[in-house]
Model the fold of this input.
Amino acid sequence: MTSDPDDAELIARSLDGDEDAFVEVVRRHEAAVGAYLARRAGRELAEDLLGEVWVAALGSRANYDRSFPDAGPWLFGVAHNTLRRHWRSRPVEEPVADVTGMASGWDPWAAVDNRVDVESVLRHALALLRPQEREILTMVVWEDLTVADAGRALGIPPGTARRCLYQARMALRNTPGMAALLTDQNMMKEAN
Amino acid sequence: MVDEMDLLSRLKVAEPVRPRAFEEGRAVLRAAMAIEGVPEMKTVPRRRARWGTRHTAGISIAALGAAAAAVALVITSAPAPGHTPAAGGKPSAKSASAAANPVLAKLAADITAQPASLPGNATLEIRNQSPTSAKPGVNGIDLYTDNGTYYWAVSRSDLRQEIVSHQVEGEFRRAIAAALIAANGDIATARAKMAVANFIPGVKVRHITYGHPKPLTPAQRKEQVDNRIWINSLDALNAVPGNAKVRAGVLAIMATMPYVKVTHTTTAGHLTLTVADSWPKLATRGLVESLVINASNGLPVALFNRDPGQPLNVTYYHTSRVTLANIEAGRF
Done:
């Protein structure tokens, strides 16, 4: 019995002409990459951009570092660049890219009284971060990547990624309203 | 103990991508594998409207195949703000069998006599919707080094960071090289190289029909090649507008395109030429893309494009020469 080939092996096969091998890599990661795009651009645009992400990944797979068996962080990086390209080239009539609108438009949770306040403060705080710090932070928190993998997705060394994460957390913590919010949340948690 | 990471995780939930979209994404991938055989090696902001997967909800392989054929663009009939046809300015078109477009050919020859390059080693480009103001807009800031490397950022401070960390957005060496070949007079070689300038070097380009409803006709294939030449020529022109030889080469190539149309116009009070690559049978599809250049030196001034049913999108270029060292030092 043989184990399934890892992503690196499939990418190698695709470079040898096996198109199905690359489609298999896509199948493995499409849910995570789709969620990544949806959190940042909304479902409609995420669905629109998915194909572009795969085509871009196909085009750059020759440069994939096959010492990494998991292609997930690399594909997040391709998705990140695809989004950047979209924002870079969007027609003027489209809304300006605005992280305060990320993950909006659908609410699966029951109404929570203070949620609007929490979201408002958080989104404002996110918008104030430097782009690279924001991306590292959200990749770690939302995509469950390690900080090293988040750095790999963005093409920056692990040490730099850790520094970005630290700075992002400090900036978030020092955002006006955040201290009061954390105090409230901890009091509510203790009360419960 | 709740911390900021816990709070942030509450914003994780997003409306999920539907299963059909995953299938369509894979279909786009397979179609791209088949139609081009070779994916593009770089990314270009101006290319999106031409192959437009994004604007097609629920795109299918057949739709992508149709998009592959829908590559010709027509000149806009509605003038953009600050841009008007000059008095008596009729399009000068040429047929596939005719000689090079005389207006572009003459301008290319005139430019060749101009100094080859300006000071600095890179071009800073602001794309916005104003014909006169160079204030950065929603499209951020582009920086093209003279060797063909492309950076992009949302602001000046971010641009410095992008360059210092070498966050390259694209490469245009091959398109520039093709333009220089044209400037030296070998138009046939230049066209052939420009047509594949956006592909990965050394990988064979296929025109296979896998996933395509039927093989492309010779005319469709010619359109496809012509489309690539047009787009890659735009890239070369935007990448090093300061280099007169590149400008001359690009215009010399465009002059030989079978359905290129040139109209004398004025833009923000300056004499300009509006150049469109217009395949007649696709004029009804509603695609518009035309390049506006300075009538005396060929520098890019604006790009107009419109997807079917969409309003005209006008982008003005504001370029300046800079040095990478100054940008890395924050002096720009």
